[in-house]
Amino acid sequence: MKLSTKAALYSGLVFPGAGYFIIKKITHGTVSCLITLAGLTVVIIEVFHKAQAISEKIITGAMPVDIGLIREQILTTPGTFPPEIVSSISIMIGLIWLVGIVDSWRIAEGMMKSERKSF
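^ thats the sequence. predicted structure below, dont judge the formating
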């Protein structure tokens, strides 16, 4: 398997930025992974907070177990962070993921071309 394909697959399927570690760009990989982890932490905190609030309503009997009502509660229950922030972070994670795939592939292709020229 070509190095560029392997780097792109690692970034796409394992974790955002993982492909950089394959091509020995440790700083790029570390930054991508840390930004993604920070964003995922915010999203997980938000999900946990909403899940706690909704499940407490169900347990106390204030809300019946109805999937439509639960979906409505997910959308209307106030969270820890404003919805715009959570949406922006989700988009940021997606962009980092996409940039990591394309950039690790691009860098690996450049490395392979320079190796071919040196022979």
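The chain has a mean pLDDT of 92.
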